[in-house]
Amino acid sequence: MVHRLERLVIRHTHRIPGPTGRAGEGAVAARRFDAALMSVGFKLSAELLAHLSGLSEDAVIETAARTLDTVREMVGDHVRHNVYFVDFPANVPDTFDFWMRCLADALADDATRASTLEQLSTGVVNLLTLPSYGNQPHTYAEMLAHHDELITAAGDRMTVLHLGGTLDAEITSLYLALAGSTTPLGEDGLCDLRDLAGHCADRPQPEKIPVRENRAVVNQARLMVGTGLLLDTVTDGLRLACALVGGDVTLQEPTRLRTLPRSVRRALLAALDAVVAAAPAKLADVHAHREMWKRLGERLHPHEYPQWPHAADVFAVARGEKTARSLDSRVEELLARGDTTTAVELLKAAPGKLFRSLDRLLRDSSTQEERDVIVVAAEQVVRDVSGRVLLSVRQHLHNREQETGEQRLFVNRLGRAWVTDDTRRPVFAPERERLIAALDAELRRRLPAADHLLIDPEVLDVALPLSGKATESGLGVLPRGSVSRVDGELLRFFVYWKQSERSTDYDLSAALLNADYSTASWLSYTNLRGVEGEHSGDITSAPDGASEFINLRLGAVRATCVVPQINIYSGEGFEEVEESFFGFMLREGEQKGRPFEPRTVRAKSGLRGPGRVALPLVFLRGSDGRWRAKWLHLYLKGTPSSNRVEGNRVTVATLLRGIVEREQLTVRYLTELMTGSATTVTAWDGKTVPAGPVTYIGLERPAGLHRQSRIVTPENLSDLIPA
Asked: Vertex 57, ends 54 and 60: CA angle to 5°?
């Protein structure tokens, strides 16, 4: 467990908890450790190297073994990436010639000759029935023998690992950061928080836990050690019940509830009783999840505990035996009668709900007087709305000005995307501009003052992480909508998957689109080679894991957009396989090496979403001719089987038009708000480190910053989101 927690710290913070051990002459071992790290694109900071050099050789070797395992997994080097075509990207055959070769092999095989001839007589041959198609024709070692060593280039990725505090201090710090996050965590983040919460239940706790899912995970840990629960709504109790049985604490997916131990039932009912006793109006929240409350009541047996009558009221409301009108129902009734003014006055009691309803209220208002009432109400309660909601509304209102009214893009919390006609009436400019001004002023007030801002220009176009669900876990992964430069002559992206129980075939493809999002060409198992690049070959089953690659020469790409996509042709979904991830590498023209070289990996992203087609990101060529990556983290429903890049052209083009042209709130927006008259702003040049403390915002933490500096990188970017 301790080693797992140490791995969490390294993965989340890029810090190695201060290695301990007896003093000694560890300098030689430390340099070897550093060299081993550099082979996978990591490096020890000068401070960490010096610290390790003062320890015994055994202590350094033990630290190195644990750390190397962690960083190799971070970059995707913990598995063997074999390819179908042994010389890839050289000597990739023409698609038709390759298929004819597979057909000839099948005719030469006594076991398959008859069935192949029968298929030929019908005029249609199933490639999957040909014995040499889709199965690795060589071992991993044989593939490596066909490739030269990677030539080191200045552009190779080098992620610096820094010296952390003690393991206990680092674990506590990470726990406080995740538990107290102002934005929802992704699935992996919640899993990590669950591990940390159990370890830190009797340690310092965050002052606030604003995200309800986080609170459920923390409450689960507190319940296990007998600490008081943190419930202030009845829904907090339902989330906790789901957490206790390993269910979905977001309450978006069905959870199979089961009977809980008596001590747990008592604690949960006592907490619910206290919430309702203090604020009976909170019973109205039951309506949102009535059926789940009914099922939970069958397992908690509230009738056995007459000492908590208010808890019993929760289940009485769920069963319809007790009345508790919700705020939503009262608002809907007023709006149905056309009484917008009274509805807005009622919504002021729930400021967050008012702000999330602003678009609807404004577009449905028929008079200027009603619109003025809405805007004034928003200005009056803006201080009581969470920073994440303010930023979300700010982004929404800005895009309402840009939207054409033709198509509307939806992306749910799981990354499932779809497009529909936009039939909304407009939000008029005077109200929109007045609200944007109020939002900007409030956000500026909440952001911490900074005497000296040190900003890496490369971070300015990173989208604000308004939800951890808008990204995937991994290395170099940025929130949906983020844009980053692509520097290099060769772009190579890859997918790896390992099936759990059933034969599973994932197909890596690349759609090359014109400026109007029409298809220019593509690379896939149906088009292995083109002017732009090569496909590594189709692998159709992955009992021991499988990899596919696409190699692109960016200078030869004639299209404007390159859209990597992972299509599930057959077998297990992204959430069913044992493991699956996507990533991309960048190389200089003269760099050869193996198909997968960890030093050249710029990003590695998990694939764990719904649907049968994944769209991790898109590469875009700007008007200046330079390429940039824009992160999507989208999943399409697709078909149950046989998904292909050719069949997704219309859907992908429509989605891209919606998300590429949609403007995101970025780090640039917040840094502009943080810049006051007394603030010194310095662009980080990669060399000069200020002597005093700074607030540094960038993609990588520089070495040598003052110890009192505040450091914000993608690993803790959510720290910028005001509470």
From this structure: 75
Q: Where are the beta strands (DSSP E) in 442-504?
A: 452-455, 474-475, 483-485, 490-498
Q: How far is CA 682 from CA 87, 450, 455, 648, 694, in A?
A: 47, 12, 6, 45, 10
If phi over 0 gives left and psi between -120 and 50 gives alpha, with beta otherwise, what is residue 20? beta
Residue type, 320: G
Q: Position 58: which residue type?
A: D
Residue pointed to by tokens 């023209």: 589
d(C-alpha 572, C-alpha 124), whole Å:
27
Q: Residues in the chain, how many?
A: 723
Structure tokens at 505: 């075939």
Residue 29 CA, distance from chain mean position:
36
What are all long-range contacts of 83-87, with beta carbons under 8 Å and residues at least 24 apart? 83/143, 83/536, 83/537, 83/547, 83/548, 83/549, 83/595, 84/134, 84/136, 84/137, 84/536, 84/537, 84/538, 84/539, 84/548, 85/536, 85/537, 86/137, 86/138, 86/142, 86/143, 86/146, 87/146
d(CA 13, CA 36): 20
What residues does 15 pair with on adjacent strands? 162
Instruction: Find how far residue 671's CA is from the centre of its chain.
Output: 23
Q: How many Å separate Cα 24 from the centre of its chain?
A: 42
- Token pair, residue 91, equals 């000597």
DSSP codes, 394-437: HHHHHHHHH--SSEEEEE-TT-BEEEEE--PPPPPHHHHHHHHH
Q: How far is CA 495 from CA 201, 610, 719, in A?
A: 38, 17, 31
Q: What is the pLDDT of residues 187-244, one digit of tens each?
A: 889 999 999 998 998 888 998 899 999 999 999 998 988 888 889 999 999 999 999 9
Please state, as a whole number, how many other Cβ atoms lie within 10 Å of the Cβ of residue 626: 12
What does the pLDDT look like over 446-505, one tens digit per residue?
998 888 999 999 999 999 988 767 788 899 999 999 999 999 999 999 999 999 999 999
With CA atoms as reference, report the closest residue to 160 among 337, 10, 353, 319.
10
Report the alpha-carbon distance of residue 291 to residue 313 in Å, rounded: 15
CA–CA dist 186, 469 (Å, integer): 5
Q: What is 651-702 written as a DSSP string?
A: HHHHHHHHHHSSPPPBHHHHHHHH--TT-EEEE--SS---SS--EEESSSPP
What does pLDDT average to over the chain? 91
Distance of CA 416 to the CA centre of its chain: 13
Collect all residues with Cβ–Cβ distance below 8 Å to 708 and sequence separation of at least 6. 693
* Cα 391–Cα 394–Cα 396 angle in degrees, nearest 5: 110
